[in-house]
Design a protein that fits this description.
The complex is a heterodimer. Chain A is α/β, with parallel strands linked by helices. Chain A is about 40% helix and about 20% strand. Chain A has two domains: about 1-180, Thiamin diphosphate (ThDP)-binding fold, Pyr/PP domains (Rossmann fold); about 195-325, Rossmann fold, CATH 3.40.50.920. In chain A, strands 3-2-4-5-7-6-12 form a seven-stranded mixed beta sheet, sandwiched between helices. Chain B is about 40% helix and about 10% strand. Chain B is globular and about 50 Å long. Chain B is of the alpha/beta class. In chain B, the strands form two sheets. Chain B has a six-stranded parallel beta sheet, sandwiched between helices. The termini of chain B are far apart. Chain B has one domain: Thiamin diphosphate (ThDP)-binding fold, Pyr/PP domains (Rossmann fold). The interface between A and B is large, with 47 and 50 residues.
Chain lengths: ~325, ~350
């Protein structure tokens, strides 16, 4: 059946709230407002204010309260409005959620799901547009998901709710209105498995989240020129599905990593390093990266477009690599 | 601004008085031994001693039952002992041994005992407060009558997480006892040098929260105040801020040269020592004889000697288990790779 990404996340939330009385949702404006991105619209009416809880603008307190509630036996889903706001809760994430299981000698587990919007493309400038999920993926003890398709929006949330440890879900904000086909039967996705979204023999384009559709658009354009790009959707940044990346690179012998985030110290750098470490002799060309420009996100539309990876820049990078080889 | 304190003779009952005394002696001797072992290099890292503040942990924990939860700080040896955690598991943790309460992963600042609902020592100042709010939310949503006691120091009051957590707990009327151990210094910065308004108890008013300040050197006063507070919280009155005014005799940590306070100030607080004060009161009421005191000291000395022996004899965690317990291993084997 067809639905939007927003509706798919909502379907996942509703299914979880219906099936498990321990699940509850809390965050800024998730209740009466219906969610800043209208994801939770209607859930307050269906499940009531105890299970769909509006919070004050206290990111650290309500993310930390999510950790505490998880320790206390509940199954919290915390919505943080955007990844830039989540920095106010980073203490709770890095110093508590990620470490409590280890630091307690295995006594405590934190079955917490935190969702937030990420990414640029909506002319919201430099405090609402960044892609910081790579920072989260740096941290052992948490899992980092980036659903790029409508089906994954629902099914990765359901998978996250089966995890015994903290899971962070990054929903690219430009995806919410997009429509897609989803299986009628909801099945939790497999965390830690990448998907080949388009098969191709000439180059592996490795990406995730909001950049997937751009990579696929670039691949369609390249196909008309006789270049067959394989597009890999990582889906999970931690744990990372390295075998799928390496298997693809072994076939295509070329890799382009596409990531909206800044290039320096980026998740794209991690992917590049893994390929260099484990597939160096498979390569016919150096790994290339198409990343966000190293600038705080500008407001003006033409500047923002120039700051983000686009199908044309991805295609140009692939073309240059393939023709050189 | 007045603080509550107990009148001589109130709440004094022989076995209870001796139990409180014994518990405070136990904490003090444990920490004196820890300090000695630190200087011998047996214990490393940070070691924050609670010596001087024992009346707060011992008094407050009288008000809590086994179903109540505790969230503590990096100065949590006293809370852990008063909660009933075995001294040998704590000493072994200070050694970093596998038989420690956190299997050598935590050290002095991170004691955990999930069975006793001791949810840990948190070493980011105020970082435990949101967790306490969440634990209380879990109890509330599951209709349990438990209270979560959250210890923190005066330094935490400067953190945003203090204010966010106080507001959230009050907004949702959650069963949290916020227990501020005001020892007058945030590490080396005196209260008046980090707070525009130094009356910590009064800050609760901003959140419509009930509050009381108590003499933290008087275990009976702390116990009485904690019982009042916990009763009110458990009855559904929402969170409560209890400020215990106390003092640490020792440096902030073993690394602290104590340049920020005078010896005479420390000495003046030692005159109000919680152990000596309670012992004198018990003696005056004919509830404590020299033989009782000797018996307490002997029992505690035996327990601590056994704890040191257990720590010395305890095994080290194997290095090949270094990356274990980063993720929960599920019995079904359905866990995803790290």
């Amino acid at each position: 059946m067809k639905m939007t990404y927003r509706e798919a996340v909502r379907a996942g939330l509703r299914a979880a709230l219906r099936s498990d009385p321990l699940v509850f949702l809390m965050g800024e404006d998730v209740g009466r407002y219906g969610g800043a991105f209208a994801v939770s619209h209607g859930l307050l009416e269906e499940f009531g204010p105890e299970r769909v809880r509006d919070t004050p603008l206290s990111e650290s307190a309500f993310v930390g309260a999510g950790i505490g509630a998880a320790l206390g036996g509940l199954r919290p889903i915390v919505e943080v409005m955007t990844v830039n706001f989540s920095l106010l809760a980073l203490d709770q994430v890095v110093n508590n959620a990620a470490v409590l299981h280890h630091m307690s000698g295995g006594q405590l587990s934190v079955p917490l799901v935190v969702r937030m919007a990420t990414g640029g493309g909506r002319q919201l400038a430099a405090q609402h547009s960044h892609s910081l999920e790579g920072w989260y993926a740096h941290v052992p003890g948490i899992k980092v998901l980036a659903p790029a398709t409508v089906a994954d929006a629902r099914d990765m949330l359901l998978a996250a709710l089966l995890e015994p440890d903290p899971v962070f879900i990054f929903e690219h904000a430009t995806l919410y209105p997009l429509e897609g086909e989803v299986p009628t039967e909801a099945t939790p996705a497999t965390i830690g498995r990448a998907e080949v979204r388009r098969a191709g023999r000439d180059v592996s384009v490795i990406t995730y989240g909001g950049a997937l559709s751009k990579a696929l658009a670039a691949a369609a354009q390249l196909a008309q020129e006789g270049i067959e790009a394989e597009v890999i959707d990582l889906r999970t940044l931690r744990p990372l599905d390295v075998p799928t990346i390496l298997a693809s690179v072994a076939r295509t012998r070329r890799a382009v990593v596409v990531d909206e985030a800044w290039r320096t110290g980026s998740f794209a750098a991690e992917i590049s390093a893994r390929i260099a470490e484990e597939a160096f002799y498979d390569l016919d060309a150096p790994v290339a990266r198409v990343c966000g420009a190293e600038v705080p996100m500008p407001y003006a539309r033409h500047l923002e477009e120039a700051a983000l990876p686009q199908p044309a820049t991805i295609a140009a990078t692939v073309r240059k690599m393939v023709r050189r080889g | 601004m007045t603080t509550t304190s107990s009148e001589p003779g109130t709440d004094l009952e022989s076995t209870h008085g001796l139990a409180l005394l014994s518990e405070m002696v136990r904490i003090r001797r444990f920490e004196e031994k820890a300090a000695e072992l630190y200087s011998l290099g047996k214990i490393r890292g940070f070691l924050h001693l609670y010596i001087g503040e024992e009346a707060v942990a011992v008094g407050a924990l009288q008000a809590l039952g086994p179903d109540d939860a505790i969230v503590s700080t990096y100065r949590e040896h006293g809370h852990a002992l008063a909660r009933g955690m075995p001294a040998d598991s704590l000493m072994a943790e200070l050694y970093g041994k596998a038989n420690g309460c956190s299997r050598g992963r935590g050290g002095s600042m991170h004691f955990f005992d999930v069975g006793r609902r001791f949810y840990g020592g948190y070493a980011i100042v105020a970082g435990g407060l949101p967790i306490a709010v969440g634990l209380a939310l879990a109890d509330h949503l599951q209709q349990r009558a438990s209270v979560t006691a959250c210890f923190f120091g005066d330094g935490a009051v400067a953190e945003g997480e203090f204010h966010e957590s106080m507001n959230l707990a009050a907004l949702w009327k959650l069963p949290v006892l916020f227990l501020c151990e005001n020892n007058l210094y945030a590490m080396g910065t005196a209260l008046a040098r980090h707070q525009a308004a130094t009356d910590i108890r009064a800050k609760a008013a901003a959140y419509g929260m009930a509050a009381e300040a108590v003499d933290g050197m008087d275990v009976l006063a702390v116990e009485a105040a904690a019982r009042r507070a916990v009763d009110q919280v458990r009855a559904g009155g929402g969170p409560f801020l209890l400020e215990a005014r106390t003092y640490r005799y020792r440096a902030h940590s073993m690394a602290d040269p104590e340049l920020y306070r005078s010896k005479s100030e420390v000495e003046s607080w030692k005159q109000r020592d919680p152990i000596a004060t309670l012992a004198a009161r018990l003696r005056a009421a004919d509830l404590l004889a020299d033989a009782d005191m000797a018996a307490i000291e002997a029992t505690v000395a035996g327990e601590i000697a056994a704890a040191v022996a257990a720590a010395e004899a305890g095994p080290w965690e194997p290095v090949d288990g270094l990356t274990s317990d980063v993720h929960t291993v599920r019995a079904t084997g359905a866990g995803t790779p790290a």
